[in-house]
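User: Let's play a game. I give you a shape written as tokens, and you guess the letters that built it. Ready? Here's round one.
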């Protein structure tokens, strides 16, 4: 099935949509990521856990820092995928999260928020991921994020991410 055959506003087929992610321009990538994020709200956790996370990571790497809106949706999707598959955490992903957090300041607070949610999802209950992230310096990046997140309600994401790293 080609991408042209899929109504991204209506489909509920997480696996089919996810197969089209990658090697797309920013607009197509954002549309696919938006659809996947919408579908993830009701998708089966096992189905989400079976999806490759590499295309979403590639979107973050490719479009950061020039297309923050694409990066934001990709990070949000990765945070959802992390809840279903913590094995996606590796040194490259942690390095990418740190890069996004350092490249984007208070002018892109939602990227800080999404990075915090991703760290929380990867670290919660997973000692190996938490150790990897602590060793890489994620806690310092989280401390710096607190000053960049402007929405007071969302500053709690920093504490939640830090707690996930500490509790694992």
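Assistant: Ready! My guess for every position:
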């Amino acid at each position: 099935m080609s991408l042209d055959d899929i109504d991204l506003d209506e489909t509920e087929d997480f696996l089919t949509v996810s197969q089209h992610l990658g090697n797309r321009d920013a607009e197509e990538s954002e549309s696919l990521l938006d659809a996947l994020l919408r579908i993830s709200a009701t998708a089966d956790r096992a189905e989400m856990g079976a999806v490759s996370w590499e295309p979403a990571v590639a979107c973050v790497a490719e479009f950061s820092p020039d297309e923050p809106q694409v990066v934001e949706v990709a990070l949000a999707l990765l945070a959802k995928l992390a809840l279903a598959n913590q094995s996606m955490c590796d040194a490259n992903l942690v390095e990418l999260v740190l890069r996004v957090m350092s490249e984007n300041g208070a002018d892109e607070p939602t990227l800080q928020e999404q990075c915090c949610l991703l760290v929380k999802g990867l670290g919660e209950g997973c000692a190996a991921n938490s150790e990897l992230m602590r060793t890489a310096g994620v806690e310092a990046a989280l401390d710096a994020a607190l000053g960049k997140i402007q929405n007071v309600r969302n500053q709690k994401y920093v504490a939640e991410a830090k707690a996930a790293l500490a509790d694992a």
